[in-house]
Amino acid sequence: RPSGPGALLGRRLIASGPISH
Q1: 3: Cβ–Cβ under 8 A, 6 or more apart, which residues?
Q2: What superkingdom heads the lineage (predicted)?
Q3: Considering the entire predicted model, what is its pTM?
Q4: Which pLDDT score is estimated for 9?
Q5: Up-side HSE of residue 5: CA atoms within 13 Å toward CB?
Q6: How far apart are the C-alpha atoms of 21 and 13, rounded to whole Å?
Q7: Do residues 21 and 10 lie in contact, with contact meaning Cβ atoms separated by under 8 Å?
Q8: 13 contact partners, CB below 8 Å, separation of at least 6
């Protein structure tokens, strides 16, 4: 979800744990 800073790191972490962002 490109709602904030997670948009950049979220793309990679989304595979590991999207709940983090």
Answers
A1: none
A2: Eukaryota
A3: 0.12
A4: 64
A5: 2
A6: 8
A7: yes
A8: 6, 20, 21
Q: Is the sign of the CA dihedral 12, 16, 20, 21 positive or negative? A: positive
Predicted local confidence at residue 21, as pLDDT: 46
In the 8-state DSSP scheme, what is residue 5?
T
Tokens of 11: 């793309």
Tokens of 17: 């744990």
Q: What pLDDT is stored for residue 16 in this prediction?
A: 57
Structural tokens at position 13: 């972490």
Count Cα neighbours of 3 within 13 Å in the Cβ-side half-sphere. 3
